[in-house]
Input
Amino acid sequence: MVYLSSRAGKRHQQSEDAVLVGSDFLNDTTKELQLPASGFVCVADGVGGNAGGAQASKFVLCAAAEYDPCKKDQDLRSFLISVNEDLIQYAAQDGQSANMATTLTGFLFSDTAITLLHVGNTRAYIKQGKYLKQITSDHTTYNWLVSNGQLEAAEQCNRSEITSCFGGGRSELLSKLFIAEYPAFSVALLTSDGIHDFVNIDTLEDILNNDEPYPNKCESIITQAIASGSEDDLTVVIISNE
Output
């Protein structure tokens, strides 16, 4: 099953987060859906610093919904690069939103494999026993500075500034797109930065390990993020094979 809750943050009239589950595009809603046997479960977070973030996340997810993993002649990376080029061309037609951009994180399910895909600062976690393991690396200026030992500069930078994404007016911004097969799992968690920038992994673990049903866990995570000061869009997706 797939359990999700996604809503606009306090400082947004329209949510720039969106979720794709199979062929279902979801935005600013709470849902419980069957895990698709074939297709994506992923989160896209339109880049708030650029005009057109909501358009960008919708564009990429609606394009992804057309991908058929059962077609043997399709290559996922090539397909996503093509989607990126289409997004850049689409954005160029609107002078005010020429740099629209979005992150993308999630899984592609097929009858033969599970594939993890990621670009930007949305996140994927896997639950191992009672613990969560983050399986994506944030493509942010902050993360780059920390990894290069520039800790003082990292503390001064904008932690939400991303270094790789779909769109942004330049094809090379997709250069860090990560795609890899991933082993089967029991529970996975996808979050936008409006969640994980305000709810630490220990709290996420506590919520996932409590006795509430999964829809309540999603709401509890969002409630915790808001209580901790999040004003950004908020998206939580729990994928359960239990």
